[in-house]
Automatic annotation (TrEMBL):
One of its GO terms (cellular component) is cytoplasm. Belongs to the Iojap/RsfS family. Keywords: Cytoplasm, Repressor, Translation regulation. GO terms for molecular function: ribosomal large subunit binding. Functions as a ribosomal silencing factor. Interacts with ribosomal protein uL14 (rplN), blocking formation of intersubunit bridge B8. Prevents association of the 30S and 50S ribosomal subunits and the formation of functional ribosomes, thus repressing translation. It is found in: Cytoplasm. Interacts with ribosomal protein uL14 (rplN). One of its GO terms (biological process) is negative regulation of translation. Transmembrane segments: none annotated. HAMAP family: Iojap_RsfS. The lineage of its organism: Bacteria, Pseudomonadati, Bacteroidota, Flavobacteriia, Flavobacteriales. This is Ribosomal silencing factor RsfS. It comes from Aquimarina mytili. It comes from the Bacteria. The gene is rsfS.
Length: 123
């Protein structure tokens, strides 16, 4: 149990590093562990300003996690349109949006019971 938690913390750290490397905006972590019947433990949500930046964020996350943890996602979906890309690392699911798509779907609102951590960035 403890090893799994350390692994999840390391994974989230590397995901955040990947997002910040290409200046992803409005980064939030939703802790879903206290909510019944969830598909994973955490959502990491961020957005980019264009489909080019969304793809850059996705590629940066995958490259960073692969390099540092030798792990790759179980599933990636949405790369073709790059409006909402989902990267599934089983315990952690990353959502990379374009800003207007994020506002439309309002995942933070849908998962309002989750404990939310806002990540401050310096850019």
């Amino acid at each position: 149990m403890t090893k799994k938690e350390i692994g999840t913390d390391q994974l989230i750290t590397q995901i955040l590093k990947g997002i910040e490397e290409v200046k992803g905006n409005d980064i939030n972590i939703l802790d879903l562990r206290e909510i019944e019947n969830t598909v994973c433990s955490y959502f990491v949500i961020c957005n980019g300003t264009s489909n080019t930046q969304v793809n850059a964020i996705v590629n940066s996350i995958q490259k960073t996690v692969s390099k540092e943890l030798k792990d790759k996602p179980w599933h990636v979906e949405g790369s073709e349109n790059a409006e909402w890309v989902l990267i599934d690392y089983v315990n952690v699911v990353v959502h990379v949006f374009q800003k207007h798509i994020r506002e439309f779907y309002d995942i933070e609102g849908l998962w309002g019971d989750a404990k939310t951590t806002v990540i401050e960035t310096n850019y």
